[in-house]
Design a protein that fits this description.
Aminopeptidase; RimJ/RimL family protein N-acetyltransferase; 200 residues; 8 strands; 31% helix; alpha+beta; eight-stranded mixed beta sheet
Length: 200
């Protein structure tokens, strides 16, 4: 049976390359997560050094068994891996998917990296995969993530209360956002404007 999402490298004009995740990326991903000790943020799922291999194994298992496609995010200016992101929760029959499992090194935050990565992922989803909707989800308490998702043009659909059990035993309320196909041209124009506007 053909995959809905084939392995593909997505290349931005200025900031990023998105490459399919491989086991060989482990050391570079660990170095990226260490920039800001991202695993210490209790509301995220960034892997610590001890859990990195398991994190990558699970991502590749999701790719092989559930049709997901995990990527590493490589910064074009210096060639360093600065994070990871993923297509997952793939519903090929209804041409829907989710973008998530996204995190960036501290040094890559508040740059054009996330904006260009989202532009590449959304363009591929809507223009190559012909998706009718792309979803984003985040923890209720991840206020930075919620703001970033809204800033790219996604609209909040609702909140799934007590949606998941977190590793620390707390209950996660999940905020759900989406972009639908009819909104994509406007969102694309907005993302391109964000990439081209002068930065403070």
């Amino acid at each position: 049976m053909a995959r809905f999402i084939d392995a593909v490298t997505l290349t931005g004009r200025n900031h990023v390359l998105l490459e399919p995740l491989r086991q060989e990326h482990t050391d570079e991903l660990l170095a990226a997560a260490a920039d800001g000790e991202l695993w210490k943020l209790w509301y995220t799922s960034v892997a610590s050094a001890d859990a990195a291999l398991s994190y990558i194994d699970k991502a590749l298992e999701m790719r092989d068994n559930q049709g997901a496609m995990p990527f590493v995010v490589r910064r074009k200016s210096d060639g360093k891996i600065v994070g990871t992101t993923r297509y997952f929760n793939v519903d090929a029959a209804n041409r829907r998917l989710e973008i998530g499992h996204t995190w960036y090194s501290k040094s890559a935050q508040r740059t054009g990296i996330n904006t260009e990565a989202k532009l590449l992922l959304l363009k591929h989803a809507f223009e190559t995969l012909n998706c009718i909707a792309v979803e984003f989800r985040t923890h209720w308490f991840n206020f930075e993530s919620r703001a970033a998702i809204a800033r790219i043009g996604a609209k909040q659909d609702g909140v799934l209360r007590n949606h998941q059990l977190a590793p620390n035993g707390t209950l996660r309320d999940t905020v759900v956002f989406s972009i639908i196909a009819s909104e994509w041209p406007t969102v694309k124009a907005h993302l391109r404007w964000m990439l081209n506007k002068p930065r403070d």
